[in-house]
Amino acid sequence: MKLATSAIDATPAAETTGRAKRSPSASMRAFATRMVFSAALMMTAMTSVGCFLPIYSARPERRVQQLLYTSENLRAMVDEWERFWQLDAPSHLTPIRTHGGVL
Length: 103
Prior knowledge:
Blueprint: H1 6-9, H2 13-16, H3 24-52, H4 60-84
């Protein structure tokens, strides 16, 4: 007597279609390759930004003027920050007390 094994061996069609599965080591290798390539691309882009987008003029006279304006703006920004947080006012916690009235 011969047994029919066709019902046992039949697998649904959805399981046999699709992409072939990669081994875990192959997928990790692909991920590591992608990360190394991304890091190299980012380093290349970060080191070449200054060449493509110059901040200051190439003429020395104009560049000095731009640098002076920038430093003045940064100084003014620090002053504005201290004024906003009221750090430019005298401290009332000094060890020497002053008389607040009219002498």
